[in-house]
Amino acid sequence: MSDLTDIHAAQQEKFDTRDFNLGAVRLDHYEKLRFGPWCPYWSTYSFVATRVEPGKRLLVVGSGYGRDAVIYANLGFDVDGIDISLKCVETSRELAHRFDLTKRARFHQQPAEQLEFADATFDGVVGVNVIHHVDTQSCINEVHRVLKPGGWAIFKEPRLTPLRDKFRNSPPVTWILPKGVKSLATGSMHFEDAPGEKNLDGTDFRIMRETFGNLKVTRFHVIAKLSSFFGRRPTLERWDHQMFKVLPFMRWFGDQMTLEVHKQA
Length: 265
Ligand SMILES: C[S@@+](CC[C@H](N)C(=O)[O-])C[C@H]1O[C@@H](n2cnc3c(N)ncnc32)[C@H](O)[C@@H]1O
Hints:
By secondary structure, the chain is an alpha/beta fold. It is built from 10 helices and 7 strands.
């Protein structure tokens, strides 16, 4: 692997110390009732799943502990997953082994900004919550390079929402809900961002649009943002979904999104 930057080292440290319950992973994860077009994770999955053809090559960028990569391999894709964290890579290999998918799901420790694959290798690229950890320009250049002409990429990422982020990061909210402690309502952790992490903004959109010549952004989570305090995210996501049908402009306030790009054929 190429030399790591300080940001890579910080990301490695953060994700090398996470524990994963591989026993809880199900290949039909996205079939659960809570999922549907109201959910940005499901929307990303659905975009990829509807493009499956046996032997098509898929790159999963920032593949984490490998759940989505093995799900896509099980659908029929020939999958490579890359991640900066060795623990994630080793855990993913174990997961692929459990499901007897090692031939179709391979995992590599590589930075997303310097992929060790030849030009025009992949039919598709998918990344979930990863662009906000990496150098966007270098990563998007690499994604464009390794895609075949006519290939596609889709990412699910958080979006910067200046007003709401300022509210979230100022007293008295930080007194009630400081980062790094559990939410009293949901029990979920609010972590300090590691170095290099950022929610995406117009600069990231411009990079994608200029590199690919196109970009489709779909936003989610307006009412669902309240799930940080009250839980019940699937219900709130459905409320958003209904609201967007009547008031489509409300999507503009969403802080989660899918980003879709296509390489010219
Ligand atoms: C929030 S996790 C998401 C993991 C996975 N996509 C998922 O949805 O479960 C971000 C992942 O990106 C990886 N990562 C961070 N910086 C990276 C980089 N520069 N290159 C490759 N992977 C990176 C981390 O190790 C981590 O596994």
